[in-house]
Design brief:
globular, 8 strands, alpha+beta, about 30% helix, eight-stranded mixed β-sheet
Amino acid sequence: MMETKKIKNIFTEGRIDPAFISDSIAKHATKTSIGGHSIFLGQVRADEIDGKKVAAIEYTSHVDMALEKMTSIREDIFAKYPLTCMHVHHSLGSIKAGEICLFVFTSSAHRKAAIDACTECVERIKAELPVWGKEIFEGEGYQWKVNQ
């Protein structure tokens, strides 16, 4: 019999609220086997491109494909690092400059595994997930964002 993978929905419509991030951190206080956390917060920058300022990024995704890919990334990272837990949240929709659009939170008994796993997770999300960002300029106009 084939085992069914549990697919977690990582997507949040709109910005990731700082209170949600705070609550997520606070919930780990009872997990006393954890000795280290690593957190990455991606924030929309107000870049200036060709004299136009970015006001927001509108994120879209092929959601089913992205969730399947994220499940694979999650499995790879749990196989490679001794993590206690890993949480990933990515925004969809229009996120204004200054708002949080990506929250990756890893925990382990020791800091090195949490830090390395968090870094690898962020890099793989940026390189592999079918998520696209349209940079919306102040006034009018847009361009598709290139991940860096």
